[in-house]
Design goal:
Blueprint lengths: L6 E8 L3 H14 L2 H5 L1 H6 L16 E2 L1 H7 L5 E7 L10 H5 L4 H8 L5 E7 L9
Parallel strand pairs: 1-2
Antiparallel strand pairs: 1-4, 3-4
Length: 131
């Protein structure tokens, strides 16, 4: 529930991130045969931390900027930014090369492909008079 004029701040996993495409799909999914052996849902579920022996299969969904914008289509203003780029989001040997680059530089140069989409959406003010 959000009052008229209120602002929602939401974080979603970014489908068009370096982590999703290079590490998860290309490296773990294709090169290491994870998609073939586990399927996409199980491969994505492994992104979430689980303690040893926990067989839970969490539902992990990823969103493009366009999909996120559609989720908030009813809001008056919507701003979307991507954050979180780390060397470990890239497959080896690229990860080793990027490990020497300061994280602030990675964010500045490659931030558009960050793992998190952060959405700041403001609900329209109601034109209905308060009672």
């Amino acid at each position: 529930m959000l009052r008229p004029g209120g602002t929602a701040l939401i974080g979603l996993y970014h489908r068009d991130s370096w982590f999703y495409w290079l590490w998860t799909i290309l490296y773990r999914g294709i090169a290491r045969l994870g998609l073939l052996r586990k399927g996409k849902r199980r491969l994505l579920s492994e992104i979430e931390y689980r303690s040893a022996g926990n067989d839970a299969l969490p539902l992990v969904k990823v969103y493009s900027r366009r999909q996120a914008r559609r989720l908030f289509a009813g809001f008056e203003t919507v701003a979307i930014s991507a954050y979180c780029v780390e060397a470990s989001h890239f497959p080896p040997p690229l990860a080793q090369l990027l490990a020497i680059v300061p994280r602030s530089a990675l964010e500045r140069w490659l931030g558009f492909g960050g793992w998190y989409l952060v959405i700041r959406a403001t609900k329209a003010r109601s034109s209905v008079a308060p009672q």
